[in-house]
Amino acid sequence: MLNATLELSAFNASLRTFLDASPTPFHAVRSMAERLEAAGFAALDEADSWTLEPGKGYYITRNGSSIIAWRQPTRNAAVNLGWRLIGAHTDSPCLKVKPTPELHRQGYFQLGVEVYGGVLLNPWFDRDLSLAGRVTYRNEAGRIASALIDFEQPVAVLPSLAIHLDREANASRTINAQTYLPVVMGQADTKPDFRALLKQRLQAQGVEQIETVLDYELCFYDTQSAAAVGLNQEFLASARLDNLLSCFTGLQALIDGGEAAAGQVLVCNDHEEVGSMSACGAQGPMLGQWLERVMPDADQRNRSLSCSMLISADNAHGVHPNFSDKHDGNHGPLLNAGPVIKINANQRYASNSETSALFRHLAEQVGVPVQSFVVRTDMACGSTIGPITAAELGVKTLDIGVPQFAMHSIRELAGSQDAHGLYTVLQRFVQTDLV
């Protein structure tokens, strides 16, 4: 028991470090790449020819915001046993800076934002916000380059309107995304040049020879660190648990899974929160193009897919004690009671009886409890990369996730035991010959 407790503690500490280091999809992919390289995985460039060695680990990135990592099997094993794939997504709902964002009103410098994904907006008010993402610039040699940026410290806030000025705030206040969300950056006599501020920050980070900032993809984030909370630290509180928690569990399962007969793959796509239709999204060609390169022979590739399986990991709705009527009475997952199999008759989730049964079987082998989630029949159901990837590749698929509260809030809550439980099952999954 002592060793298991230490293992859980170390896992959660590493997860919190990963969450804090990954304020944007670009930073998340960089964090994953660093961990992969420390584990011996080699980076490949999609523009190069590849020479792959059986048993060796590799990874590729696209757009700096999506990543595929894998351990190469033997040729026969790939055909006869297929691939064990784990899928997740790197993006989270947030507020993104507009292309011409500068506002100067009442002596305050503000930035206009767009809402990315299905953001729960109210919790964004009165938080200590910072800014991170990717900046593209022209250097002094006239070449275009990009660099990641992170202001790290609180540089902005979105103040609430005092209740004295809106007596009905607790009963009926709604948020107009255009007029209520411009973020306060500070006070100024004139409108500052935002691109000049970005150039100064990049130079402070050690990026040299910047001539002009040409464009950027930036989002605000909460600077409060991930934390263990609760009387007995039963919970994990953090931004971006949906879905960086799944990225981390899948990454660790791949790294710690070791060599196995079947191929082992982790794919973490960007843009899931806005439909996945992009060059690096799950509805784009990235995973299919990768598979064509690692298995060029179409007959072998199709035979391999027939004995492959994808586990799409994306968090589930835990039953909230104050809103239990929002759940089906028999399908309200509890925090710290194990990962959740997500089921929907209308294929919003890709789980079926065979893929669910295999997950239950593997979970029993490693002593991890399993729950199930079905949305109330009178409510609409969300979706994941699971059905999209299943349709793109024709691979049997399971949708699972850990239960959480406050999904799509600026700060979410999960059980402190569930990520480790999911990791334990996923590690067994990448080692199994069964599908």
Automatic annotation (TrEMBL):
Supply the alphabetized keyword list. Aminopeptidase, Hydrolase, Protease
One Pfam family here: Peptidase_M18
UniProt cross-references to InterPro entries, sorted A to Z: Peptidase_M18 (IPR001948)
Q: Which GO terms describe its molecular function?
A: aminopeptidase activity
Which branch of life, at top level?
Bacteria
NCBIfam families on file: PRK02813.1
Q: What is this protein called?
A: M18 family aminopeptidase
